[in-house]
Design a protein that fits this description.
mainly beta, Mutm (Fpg) Protein, Chain: A, domain 2, 2 domains, 5-stranded mixed sheet, 5-stranded antiparallel sheet, 4 helices, 20 strands
C-alpha cells in the first residue's frame, strides 16, 4: 500500500519562514546590484553633463572680421551669430553646439571668418565628442603668417590643437602706431580697445612729462551793461570751474577716475608727479568792470592746469597698439586764472539777452602763450570797442 506524501515537508522550517528568508536574500541582492550600477554609471558618466557645449571666438587681430560662412550640415548649432556678423578687435562671438549623446562620435561644425576684401581668412572647426562630452577645436589661417590658436581646454591637453576658446591672430610682432595729430583715430582706438568691455585686451598708460599750461579761453559769468550817460563801475565775482579734459575726448568716471582705459590713469599720474589728481576745481576772484555810457562788458579768461603727456599701449594676441602723446589736463588749484574784460558799444535799451562776440585783441596772455609755444589769442575786430575812459 502506497502512502501519499505529506502536505508539509517532513523536516526544516515551516514554509512561511522560508519565504521570508528568500525575500530578504532577494532584497539584499537587488540593493547590491543597484549600488554597483550606480557606481559604474558615476564612473562612466561624461563630465559636466549638459545638452550644449559652448565655444568662444575672439578677434585678437587689428582688423574687424566678419562671419563669412557656417557649415553645419547635421544641425548641431543651438546658438550662434549669423553669417555676415562683424566682430571688432578685442571682442568675442559665442557659439553653442548641441551635445548628442547617442549621435555621431565626432560632432563637427565649421565657421569661416574673413577680413573685408578677403585679405585674410580663418577657418575654425568646433567639435563635441558624443561618448565623453569633451570639446575640441582646430583652426587654420590664411595667409600662413597669420595665426589661429585655440586655448582654454576641457580636459587640458595640447593648447595648439584643442580647446573651447579660439583666438584669431595677426602675424607675430604686429605693431600699430598711432602718432599725435591723429586725434580721432587715437580716440576711436582707445574707446574700442580700452573701454573695459574688450576682456582679452590689456591697456596701460605711461606718463612721460608734466607741464604747467592754461585751459582754453572761455567766457566767465554774465555780461554787464551801462545804459546810463555816465561812467559806471561794476564789481563782478568770478566763479570759474575747470574740469579734467584730455586730447582724446574721453570722459572720466565718477570721482575723476579715468578707468575707461582699463586702468586708473589718475593713479599713474599722481604716482609719477606727486600731486593729487583734481577732477574739478573752482577758481574765484572779484573783478572790477568799468563801463563807459551805452556799453556792454563781459569777462573771459583761462585757468591754470597740469598737462600730463604720455603713451597708451594696448595688447591682444600678437598685436600691440601704440597711441602716442595723449595728454590730460587737470586743474592746478595752486595756480591763478587770467581774466580779461571786453566791451562793445550798444544802442540804448538794447536787448541784453544775446551774448556778444568777443571783439578785442588782448596781450594779457602773450608771455604765457609764448612760454608754452601756443599761438597768440585774438578775438576779432576791435571796431566796436567802447572808448577808453
Amino acid at each position: 500500500m502506497t502512502t501519499a506524501p505529506s502536505a508539509n515537508p517532513p523536516t526544516g522550517e515551516p514554509r512561511p519562514a522560508r519565504r521570508r528568508a528568500s525575500l530578504r536574500q532577494a532584497t539584499i541582492i537587488t540593493c547590491l546590484i543597484t549600488a554597483m550600477l550606480t557606481a559604474t554609471t558615476t564612473l562612466l558618466a561624461p563630465p559636466a553633463l549638459a545638452y550644449t557645449r559652448g565655444f568662444t571666438v575672439t578677434n585678437a587681430t587689428s582688423m574687424p572680421v566678419f562671419v563669412q560662412g557656417i557649415y553645419d550640415p547635421d544641425g548641431y548649432l543651438a546658438g550662434n551669430p549669423p553669417e555676415g556678423a562683424v566682430l571688432m578687435p578685442g571682442l568675442q562671438h559665442e557659439f553653442q553646439l548641441t551635445w548628442q549623446f547617442f549621435g555621431k562620435e565626432k560632432q563637427l561644425t565649421t565657421v569661416a571668418y574673413q577680413t573685408q576684401g578677403a585679405g585674410s581668412t580663418w577657418k575654425v572647426a568646433m567639435i563635441v565628442y558624443a561618448t565623453t562630452g569633451y570639446t575640441a577645436s582646430k583652426c587654420l589661417a590664411y595667409p600662413s603668417n597669420y595665426q589661429c590658436i585655440p586655448a582654454g581646454l576641457t580636459p587640458p591637453t595640447n593648447p595648439n590643437t584643442t580647446g573651447q576658446n579660439i583666438l584669431l591672430l595677426d602675424p607675430p610682432g604686429t605693431v600699430i602706431d598711432i602718432p599725435p595729430g591723429e586725434g580721432k583715430r587715437q580716440a576711436d582706438t582707445l574707446k574700442q580697445l580700452c573701454n573695459g568691455n574688450a576682456g582679452q585686451v590689456t591697456c596701460s598708460f605711461k606718463p612721460s612729462k608734466q607741464e604747467d599750461a592754461l585751459s582754453g579761453d572761455h567766457p566767465v559769468g554774465q555780461p554787464v551793461v551801462n545804459n546810463g550817460n555816465n561812467l559806471a563801475s561794476f564789481s563782478v565775482a568770478v566763479a570759474d570751474q575747470q574740469s579734467e579734459s584730455n586730447s582724446v575726448n574721453i570722459a572720466s568716471k565718477a570721482g575723476g577716475k579715468v578707468s575707461v582705459f582699463g586702468n586708473e590713469v589718475n593713479v599713474e599720474i599722481s604716482a609719477a608727479y606727486g600731486h593729487t589728481w583734481t577732477d574739478t576745481h573752482t577758481f574765484t576772484q572779484t573783478i572790477n568792470v568799468p563801463l563807459p555810457p551805452h556799453c556792454k562788458g563781459w569777462i573771459h579768461g583761462v585757468t591754470p592746469v597740469y598737462r600730463v603727456t604720455g603713451d597708451f599701449k594696448a595688447s591682444v594676441g600678437n598685436t600691440t597698439w601704440k597711441v602716442r602723446e595723449v595728454y590730460f589736463d587737470t586743474p592746478n588749484p595752486a595756480g591763478s586764472g587770467a581774466y580779461q574784460i571786453d566791451t562793445e558799444v550798444i544802442p540804448p535799451q538794447a536787448n541784453l539777452k544775446q551774448s556778444p562776440p568777443i571783439v578785442e585783441v588782448s596781450n594779457v596772455y602773450a608771455a604765457t602763450d609764448a612760454a608754452h609755444q601756443q599761438p597768440p589769442r585774438t578775438w576779432g575786430s576791435p571796431a566796436t570797442q567802447c572808448p577808453k575812459q
